[in-house]
Design brief:
This protein is an alpha+beta fold. The protein has 2 domains: 138 residues, Nucleotidyltransferase, domain 5; 63 residues, no CATH class. Helix content is 30%, strand content 21%. The strands form 3 sheets. It has a 5-stranded antiparallel beta sheet with strand order 8-7-6-5-9. A two-stranded antiparallel sheet has the order 1-2. A two-stranded parallel ribbon has the order 3-4. It starts with 10 loop residues before the first strand and ends in a 12-residue tail after the last strand.
Amino acid sequence: MIKRSFNGYHYVLTALDDFTSPAWSFNLKKKSDTIIHAQQFVAYAKNQHNASIGTWRFDGRTEFLNDAFKTMLCNNGILSETSVPYQHQQNGRAEHLNHTIMDKVQSMCFCACLTDTMWEFSWDHAIHVYNRTPIRCLKWLTPFEALRNEKPDISHLRIFRCGAYVFLPEDIRANKLSPKSETMVFLGQPASYKGFCFYRTTNGRIFIGATAVFDETYFPHCPDGKQ
């Protein structure tokens, strides 16, 4: 269990393809949400990658051993492999992934002077960066490239939690004399949007925008704006 996040999440479910090595993560408010996201992931693999999951390997946690989860696997023809309790090495690659992502999350939060509640954004960003980073077991291909057979575009990547001057559409400005942009904090790439995710310090809300000028030397939450 992790400290309650900005949007009320307490847990993270990660999935790793053992062949091409990409990772996915799902934020959970309660452990019982695991079955919902597992079903969605099975459908995603089939519809987006024309792939069927052959074997699902997981540890012996209760959310993977209940009847609902077992039934879901059986209905989809998926074999299950459960590691022996307290023998984390049996699920080595997944455990290594979780440690890798957690190290990235801690580093990003520390360097950007973040509070612990913002971990969900740094976790999602860490997964996004991991999938676009060359790794040794793929002979220095990225997981993105191994899965999709194309090189990833990384032109959109920015330093997490840096400052940005974000364009405000006319519809959300207070009046015609209000500024056309506002200083916000970069939180990564939002799912299902072609744009950027920002924290709007003026009202404490999340803002999705497509046009911004980034200052990757400025970190609004750090003393004097520096790391």
